[in-house]
């Protein structure tokens, strides 16, 4: 004989489930108001401060490679005016705007188009080809501004929202995630840059260059750049903390300093040690599995002048042990141009002390 079905516990469970559902924030509910999502909220916080940067340049000969994808027909005849555009964003109410250096490179005139339809003449306060950051100034005040975030806190997998003018399509928004951080400029094919790029799968195309990459809160975490050719499904951005440091120098002096010593380095571990020692036709043998291995020393560089050699293992700089390559770059930046780095290296079976004085990093000719 079957017992009659008891509704009491089930009705109580339904009530509790309903109460739990109501306790979730609106954005967490999978069937919440789809017309009011975090992407829209983030865009609303930033879009009024995003601008279109219009440039023109009178052709007098060959067009620099950096301009070709962004500024029109590279086969245009000399004497014609080359026009193009990029993106940017306002960082303060006095009219200072961040964008990419390659957007304004060699431009004769720069104008800035705002979301409300205003078009103002822009002046390039400075541009830094090493980090691809530039600052433009327009003569106005009380402009809408973005909120700058902290790119040091960016983590792989978090949301990323790009705003810009790709291919001239104004106010375009694309969404993805941060798919990588600290991407070396060498690894992604732009060895003349000195940036640990943010990588995203949010679409970034020519015209997006100079626009903001936002987090889910609408804060700027990077400057989008489209200088990396041939990528599919990947975009890159200059971390905003790097851009802020460079922008401060550009605003103050019109130029940025980049101390360098001229070496290629790799952090040692047992796998790297075994790989190096097993390379065919190599005279290089590494005994240590900790420290920073000097892979190459550029001719005429500060490191070469000081006597650093390929195969040396850097153990300490200024009495501080080093285990990561970025720690050495931090020491170089802190020492500054014409400063002093006291470097302790292991060279085969002996310890060697070397003093290196960083110099200004030379810029490469446009490709």
From TrEMBL:
GO terms for molecular function: serine-type endopeptidase activity. Residues 1-28 form the signal peptide. InterPro entries: PDZ, PDZ_sf, Peptidase_S1_PA, Peptidase_S1C. PROSITE patterns: PDZ (PS50106). Keywords: Hydrolase, Protease, Signal. Residues 250-325 form the PDZ domain. One of its GO terms (biological process) is proteolysis. Belongs to the peptidase S1C family. This is 2-alkenal reductase. It holds the Pfam family PDZ_2. It comes from the Bacteria. SMART domains: PDZ.
């Amino acid at each position: 004989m079957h017992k009659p079905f008891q509704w009491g516990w089930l009705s109580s469970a339904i009530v509790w489930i309903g109460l739990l559902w109501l306790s979730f924030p609106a954005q967490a509910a999978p069937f919440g108001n789809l017309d009011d999502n975090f992407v829209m909220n983030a865009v609303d916080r930033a879009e009024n401060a995003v601008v279109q940067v219009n440039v023109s340049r009178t052709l007098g000969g060959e067009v620099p490679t950096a301009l070709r994808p962004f500024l029109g027909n590279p086969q245009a005849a000399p004497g014609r005016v080359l026009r193009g555009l990029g993106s940017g964003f306002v960082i303060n109410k006095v009219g200072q705007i961040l964008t990419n250096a390659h957007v304004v490179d060699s431009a004769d005139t720069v104008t800035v188009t705002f979301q409300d339809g205003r078009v103002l003449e822009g002046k390039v306060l400075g541009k830094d080809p090493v980090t691809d950051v530039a600052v433009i100034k327009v003569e106005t005040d009380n402009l809408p501004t973005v909120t700058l975030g902290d790119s040091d806190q960016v983590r792989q997998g978090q949301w990323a929202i790009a705003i810009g003018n790709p291919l001239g399509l104004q106010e375009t928004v694309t969404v993805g995630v941060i798919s990588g951080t600290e991407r070396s400029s060498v690894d992604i094919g732009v060895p003349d840059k000195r940036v640990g790029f943010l990588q995203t799968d949010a679409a970034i195309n020519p015209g997006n260059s100079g626009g903001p990459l936002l987090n889910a809160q609408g804060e700027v975490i990077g400057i989008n750049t489209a200088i990396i050719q041939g990528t599919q499904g990947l975009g890159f951005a200059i971390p905003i903390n790097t851009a802020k440091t460079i922008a401060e120098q550009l605003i103050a002096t019109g130029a940025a300093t980049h101390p360098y010593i001229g070496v290629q380095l790799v952090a040692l571990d047992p796998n790297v040690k075994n790989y190096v020692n097993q390379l065919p036709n190599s005279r290089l043998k590494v005994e240590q599995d900790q420290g920073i291995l000097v892979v190459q020393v550029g001719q005429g560089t500060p490191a070469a002048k000081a006597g650093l050699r390929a195969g040396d293992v850097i153990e300490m700089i200024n009495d501080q042990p080093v285990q990561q390559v970025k720690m050495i770059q931090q020491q170089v930046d802190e020492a500054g141009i014409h400063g002093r780095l006291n470097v302790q290296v292991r060279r085969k079976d002996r310890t060697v002390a070397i003093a290196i004085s960083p110099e200004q990093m030379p810029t490469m000719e446009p490709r």
